[in-house]
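ok trying again, last paste got cut off:
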Amino acid sequence: MTIDRPPTAYEERVYTMCSAIPKGRVTTYGDMAKALSPPSCARAVGQAMRRNPFAPKVPCHRVVASDLKLGGFKGSWGTETANVKLKRQMLLEEGVEIEGDLIGRHCVVRAGELQRLVAGKK
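nice, full thing came through this time. structure:
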C-alpha cells in the first residue's frame, strides 16, 4: 500500500509502540489500543498498521487479532491469502509459536507490559 502523506501524530505513536514489541512476541490490536495514551480503539490501530510505511522496521506483522488468530496483513484477511501466509512465515521465523491458526498465549505482550516496553525505549 502506498501512502501519499506523512504519518499522523497518532500513527507515529502507534509505530513507536509497535517497534517496542520484541522478536518472538506479538500483541493484539486491542492491547495496543489500551496501551496508547490516550487509549484508542483496535480498529484505529489496525488502520495505522495497514498504512505502515516503515515495515518491516516497524514490525506490524507482530500485531494479531484479539482471539489470537493472525488477523490481517497489508490490508488482506484470511489465512489463505498470500499476505497473511507471509505474516505467518515471518512470525514463525522469529520464533512465535503458532498452533493451527492460533498464537501461543505465552508469546503475547499485553497492554501493561507493552507500556513498560515503550517507556524503556525512551
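cool. The chain is about 40% helix and 5% strand. The helical segments are 9-19, 29-35, 42-50, 82-93, 111-121.
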